Amino acid sequence: MAPVVMSPPAFPHRRLGALAAADSERHVVSLCGEYDRSTVPALSATLARVIANDHADLVLDLSGVQFMDAATVGVIVRAREFLAARSRCLTLRTPSRFALRVIQLCGIDCRHDVARPATDQRTECEL
Predict the structure, then answer these.
(1) Is residue 1 in a domain?
(2) What pLDDT score was predicted for residue 110?
(3) Model confidence over 50-96: pLDDT tens digits?
(4) Residue 35, beta-bridge partner list
(5) Which position has the higher pLDDT, 79 or 116?
(6) Residue 10 lies in a domain
């Protein structure tokens, strides 16, 4: 599966970024940096642009997230609801330790992906 790399959006803050790749079945958006309520509009626009491209599922890779708050989780939940209403899925991949803690505090249940080797501590959360 050769990814199609989209240009990262121009965020008003230099402390974060997003990179999207796609195949025929899903889009993978990798987030890095710090996300709070000031970044909600940019993150929402990025996810909306990726979701609108076609009918693929969405995977959010959170391994590079250094900070996120409940407003960010709200964006993720709204994206999940939008996709679910269209019979599509949203999966969170490899949340950083901090991102995982915030996700769990917000009541999103995560399951460990047992198919990966023990040395690769990836976690996927299905919303």
Answers:
(1) no
(2) 62
(3) 999 888 999 999 999 999 999 999 999 999 999 999 999 998 988 99
(4) 68
(5) 79
(6) no
Domain assignment present for residue 7? The answer is no
- Starting at the edge strand that comes first in sequence, how are the strands of the sheet with 57-68 ordered? 16-22, 26-35, 57-68, 90-93, 123-126, 111-112
Residue 111's domain comprises 16-126
The CA-based dihedral angle spanning residues 91, 92, 94, 97, taken in that order and rounded to the nearest 10 degrees:
-150
Give me the number of domains the chain comprises: 1
Please give the pLDDT value at position 26. Answer: 86
* CA dist 1 → 23, 24, 25, 32 (Å): 6, 9, 10, 23
31: domain CATH number is 3.30.750.24
Looking at residue 74, its pLDDT comes to 94
Q: Is residue 109 part of a domain?
A: yes
**Mean pLDDT over the full length of the chain:** 76
13: three-class secondary structure by DSSP: coil
Q: Whose CA is closest to 103, among 42, 57, 62?
A: 62
